[in-house]
Q: What sequence folds into this?
């Protein structure tokens, strides 16, 4: 690891380096040239310095003893009554990762009057549940929860911390990672563990065109947020195991710069993430009549309608109905794509579906490489026939 070093004895303050830098990474402060956070190490300044006052300096990396950090800590998200399913998926993945290393999997729960909810985690296979239960922690406040999370890490010293890539998780995880000066990989879709406990964090990059493998080899703990519906939930045990450890809630954990004035519980809406059947409208759906046919098909199958990003941008659907990297990740039992080409940005959000049926009039459409059932046909012509047959079949079943 290297950084720029500017020798003040050689530097003439000609400012040529400041002028040549394409990233505005050099500033003149108190008669000294200093390097700011914009530096990309392009070395243009070095090549253009007339007196060779700029050089590369090797920075000493702080080595850590990885053996002092063991196991996985999973942050458990909940609403006070029910555990978010993504947390159960993270426990399932953590147990899988730890099989080869024989290390512990623990959970962290923060809230108010949630001891009974914490008992549910003992049926998942975790070794210990760290429970911080206090009235001041009833509502999520990022600063309070960061203090609690940090206290739990100090106690357990986990090698890995896993957090769901939800609204809450995306707010909390970066704050805790910064507290420990460690890295965080967001929106992971796969996780693997090396023998030396380095976590291979896999996520889409460059618009989904590649799957990047990211390793935080020199810091602990390793933080990752993971998307919902990309992993399998932990199986329920025949009997509970493990223990609950009550954490001490201090005044520092209770103190917050935020004041919760009111909590409003919104009615639960049907989410495409929870749907067992989805019918997806892509750009091959060119008119409202065909879209109405898609809605009818979804109703007949007791499913929901979803959209690709271009369709949402056209205003045909909402962001809550969008599948893909910039939308939702889904894992239904059945998904029928109508006029969807199958760009990787879309397929990354639905490739784990149990049964994929693709309808597209282009036989070379990329979606067919992923589909279990491929139908080469015009969506506008096929859907009315399909709906009629389903109605006829359902009528026969009713009779």
A:
């Amino acid at each position: 690891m290297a950084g720029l070093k500017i020798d003040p004895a050689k530097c003439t303050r000609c400012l040529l380096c400041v002028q040549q830098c394409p990233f505005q990474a050099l500033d003149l402060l108190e008669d000294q040239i200093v390097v700011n956070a914009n530096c990309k190490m392009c070395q243009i300044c070095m090549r253009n310095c007339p007196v060779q006052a700029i050089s590369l300096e090797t920075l000493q990396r702080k080595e850590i003893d990885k053996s002092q950090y063991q196991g996985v800590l999973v942050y458990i998200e909940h609403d006070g009554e029910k555990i978010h399913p993504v947390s159960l998926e993270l426990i399932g993945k953590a147990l899988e990762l730890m099989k080869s290393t024989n290390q512990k999997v623990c959970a962290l729960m923060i809230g108010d009057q949630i001891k009974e909810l914490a008992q549910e985690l003992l049926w998942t296979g975790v070794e210990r549940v760290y429970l911080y239960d206090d009235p001041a922690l009833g509502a999520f406040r990022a600063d309070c929860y960061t203090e609690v999370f940090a206290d739990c890490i100090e106690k357990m010293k986990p090698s890995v911390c896993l957090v769901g890539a939800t609204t809450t998780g995306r707010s909390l995880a970066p704050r805790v990672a910064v507290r420990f000066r460690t890295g965080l990989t967001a929106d992971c879709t796969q996780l693997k563990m090396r023998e030396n406990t380095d976590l291979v964090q896999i996520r889409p990059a460059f618009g989904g065109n590649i799957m990047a493998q990211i390793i935080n080899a020199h810091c602990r703990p390793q933080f990752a947020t993971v998307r919902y519906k990309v992993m399998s939930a932990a199986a329920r045990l025949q009997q509970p195991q493990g223990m609950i450890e009550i954490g001490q809630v201090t005044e520092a954990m209770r103190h917050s710069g935020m004041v919760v004035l009111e909590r409003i519980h919104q009615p639960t809406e049907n989410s495409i993430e929870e749907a067992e059947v989805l019918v997806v409208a892509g750009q091959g759906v060119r008119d409202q009549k065909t879209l109405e046919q898609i809605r009818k098909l979804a109703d007949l199958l007791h499913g929901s309608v979803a959209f690709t990003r271009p369709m949402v941008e056209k205003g045909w659907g909402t962001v809550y109905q969008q599948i893909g990297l910039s939308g939702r990740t889904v894992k239904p039992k059945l998904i029928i794509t109508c006029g969807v080409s199958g760009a990787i940005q879309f397929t990354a959000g639905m490739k784990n579906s149990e049964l994929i049926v693709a309808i597209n009039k282009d036989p070379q459409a990329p979606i067919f490489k992923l589909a279990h059932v491929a139908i080469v046909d015009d969506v506008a012509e096929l859907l009315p026939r399909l709906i009629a047959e389903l109605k006829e079949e359902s009528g026969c079943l009713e009779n």
About this structure: Residues 277-398 form a domain with the Rossmann fold fold (CATH 3.40.50.1220). The chain has three domains: 2-58, 66-254, 277-398.
